[in-house]
Design a protein that fits this description.
Largest sheet: 5 strands, mixed
Number of strands: 18
Order of helices and strands: EEEEHEEHEEEHEHHEEEHHEEHEHEEHHH
Distance between the termini: 30 Å
Radius of gyration: 23 Å
Strand content: 25-35%
CATH topology of the domain at 186-341: Nucleotidyltransferase, domain 5
Structural class: alpha/beta
Number of helices: 12
CATH superfamily of the domain at 186-341: ATPase, nucleotide binding domain
Helix content: 25-40%
């Protein structure tokens, strides 16, 4: 559920993985910078996207994984420690779950909800860097975790939007986490990589190292900001500015021919005019530079850059802007590639575009670990409580 579009993707499990069988899109209404601002209009967009996907697939689904984004997302690193019972000192799945629960047991404001508890590594006694401690022997188990929290009210609005669409939430998933399932490789996660998912209203960032999430965050700048700059700079309508940005835009002026010119529709009854592509690029480049520089400043400040052995992966619809990869390489001083969804079959040619990274990732998201089941149970209980509260409130009004 993004700022510019709502996408629904249906798939089925096969012996070789996941096969995409239905895709639906609808213009995003009632959503701003990844957050629901008008429940009825947002529900209408969801119903339209779901209806189109179900019609293509020839099936009807009730339960959907839902992506969560927005500047209300917060994250922090934490740790949990438990002792192992002395009768055998063999670590069990229950011990792992107790450690993860301890890692997320800290005081939260009343308006915050834990969305994910993502293991970074386990430490058995003094041995660190362990990814799977079950079956090992030790007397002390520690988990280093990355905890993601969200505004409870924002999640309540997502829940009510889905309820108004007559759909149920399977899992609430942080959108860059979903995108990472679709576009990153295991080697990149292990060596160290930064995912930059540039959407319409926000840009999501997630950093992996040694297989775990090191950091994550959301920046309130996206493709719509670039479009607004073009509309203002060229004195044209937003719709025309978006078309010009996609067809002729370039994020790096050095890559543009000085002699190329484009037509710009006027606003109202004003005549169409011609401007040089260099003018357009001179409008776009500062905004994209601002975005990448904000991210670069943060990773330098927190000393994350040396953990990025595999460089940077750009994804999201706005990552396809011509010259964005080259500009990112200059600013980050790291290798950069544009990530498209991998690991799916069926309608792969339809979803083989960065704009579908989050949607495909939601389809691929199926954490079968105990931590995942623990997280799912928590989310499902919260969601049922939220829906029950909404229905109770409606009943009291009636």
């Amino acid at each position: 559920m993004g700022t510019t579009k709502v996408s629904a993707i249906l798939g089925e499990r096969t012996g070789d993985g996941v096969r995409v069988i239905g895709v639906g899109n609808a213009p995003a209404e009632g959503l701003k910078q990844g957050v629901v601002v008008d429940i009825d209009r947002a529900a209408g967009s969801v119903r339209k996207a779901v209806s189109d996907a179900e019609r293509m697939a020839g099936v009807v689904m009730k339960v959907y994984n839902v992506g969560v984004a927005g500047e209300h997302i917060r994250s922090m690193n934490s740790r949990g420690v438990v002792g192992i019972p002395s009768h055998d000192h063999e670590i069990t799945r229950d011990d792992v779950n107790r450690t993860l629960t301890a890692g997320r047991s800290f005081a939260l404001p009343a308006d915050r909800e834990i969305l994910h508890t993502l293991p970074q590594q386990y430490i058995v006694d003094d041995q660190g860097g362990i990814q799977e401690p079950c079956g090992m022997y030790g007397s002390r188990l520690e988990a280093r975790v990355h905890v993601v929290t969200a505004s409870k009210h924002a999640l309540d609005n997502v829940a009510k939007t889905l309820d108004n669409s007559r759909l149920e939430i399977g899992e609430l998933v942080l959108e860059p986490l979903a995108s990472s399932h679709a576009v990153l490789t295991d080697d990149e996660r292990e060596i160290g990589v930064m995912l930059v998912d540039i959407g319409g209203g926000t840009t999501d960032v997630m950093i992996y190292n040694e297989g775990g999430v090191l950091a994550s965050g959301v920046i309130g700048i996206g493709g719509n900001n670039i479009t607004a700059d073009v509309a203002y700079g060229l004195r044209t309508a937003m719709k025309s500015a978006e078309e010009i940005k996609i067809e002729h835009g370039c994020a790096l002026s050095a890559m543009v021919d000085d002699n190329e010119r484009i037509e710009v529709p006027g606003i109202g009854f004003r005549e169409t005019k011609q401007v040089g592509k260099q003018v357009l690029s001179a409008i776009i480049e500062p905004r994209v530079t601002e975005l990448f520089s904000l991210i670069n400043d943060q990773i330098n400040k927190n000393d994350f850059k040396r953990a990025l052995g595999a460089g940077v992966v750009l994804t999201g619809g706005s990552s396809m802007l011509f010259g964005a990869r080259e500009l990112a390489e200059q600013i980050f001083d790291l290798p950069v590639r544009v990530g498209t969804p991998i690991g799916v079959q069926g309608l792969s040619e339809v979803v083989n575009h960065p704009m579908y990274a989050t949607g495909v990732g939601l389809l691929l998201h199926s954490d079968t670990s105990e931590e995942g089941r623990l997280q799912r149970t928590s989310s499902q209980v919260w969601w049922r409580q939220s829906v029950a509260q909404v229905r109770k409130a409606i009943a009291s009004i009636i």
